[in-house]
TrEMBL record:
Pfam families: Methyltransf_11. The keyword Transmembrane does not apply. InterPro entries: AlkB_tRNA_MeTrf/Diox, Methyltransf_11, SAM-dependent_MTases_sf. GO terms for molecular function: S-adenosylmethionine-dependent methyltransferase activity; tRNA methyltransferase activity. Keywords: Methyltransferase, Transferase. Residues 49-143 form the Methyltransferase type domain. GO terms for biological process: methylation; tRNA modification. It comes from Candidatus Nealsonbacteria bacterium CG23_combo_of_CG06-09_8_20_14_all_39_17. The keyword Iron does not apply. It comes from the Bacteria. This is Methyltransferase type 11 domain-containing protein.
């Protein structure tokens, strides 16, 4: 994927989340149980970045662990909701590819369900390298992505997109899809770009960015029992 189109998709994703911010926030009111095990990496006094924080739903859990929480997201609307929901926390609108903090600043960085929304191999690698930059030496990245789904409708879309790419009719990369966000009546409000990872691909990407893998596995996400890949890696 060329970088110009990748940047266009990033802008489209940002606009989409601004559009659906309130409804999206309503579905992310509670801390999902599958994330609970990832909190064991937070120690009291840790400076923690929640990258792609959305409505700030991780704040309470990280605060309970004694972490010094900082949340950033590129959606102004979601940051407005995060500040409203958690007025005592620090939130700001920012680009995950240009994190507004200095080198070696954070002990831990959470990137929950963010990386799969970053288009192109180059920008995904830039994303991980930027996280590595702001982590302290031996700091830890806690990351999740959606796993490549076995659902028939997903595979059908993947195969259609792959065929279009092979014949030069698609700018997307292999394993890229657009995932619709629908209202209660089933009307599509926006299309979200998603890259569907395999386990090997995610591990290899983290290693290319210079991380050391500490743990890796799968967790169920949300009420639909879909699967996330999680990765714990150190600088």
């Amino acid at each position: 994927m060329d970088e110009k189109y990748a940047r266009y998709l990033l802008g489209m994703s940002k606009g989409g989340y601004d559009l659906i911010a309130e409804r999206f926030s309503d579905t992310r009111c509670f801390f999902w149980k599958d994330l609970g095990g990832l909190l064991e990496y937070v120690n009291s006094g840790d400076r923690v970045l929640d990258l792609g924080c959305g409505n700030g739903r991780l704040f309470g859990a990280i605060k309970e662990k004694g972490g010094d929480y900082h949340g950033i997201d590129n959606s102004e609307k979601l940051i407005e909701l995060a500040k409203k929901n958690n007025p005592q926390a620090e939130f700001q609108t920012a680009d995950a590819l240009n994190i507004p903090f200095g080198d070696n600043y954070f002990d831990k960085v959470f990137a929950i369900a963010v990386l799969h929304h970053i288009p192109s191999l180059k920008l995904r690698l830039d994303f991980l390298k930027e996280i590595k930059r702001v982590l302290k030496q031996n700091g830890v990245l806690i990351l999740t992505v959606w796993k490549l789904s076995p659902k028939k409708q997903v595979w059908r879309v993947l195969l259609e997109n792959a065929f279009l790419k092979i014949i030069g009719k698609s700018k997307l990369d292999f394993k890229d899809i657009f995932y619709p966000w629908k209202d209660f009546q089933g009307k599509v409000l926006t299309q979200r770009y998603v890259h569907l990872f395999s386990s090997k691909e995610l591990n290899d990407l983290a290693k290319r960015a210079g991380f050391t893998i500490k743990d890796f596995g799968e967790t169920e996400r949300g009420k639909d029992k879909d699967t996330n890949l999680f990765l714990i890696a150190s600088k």
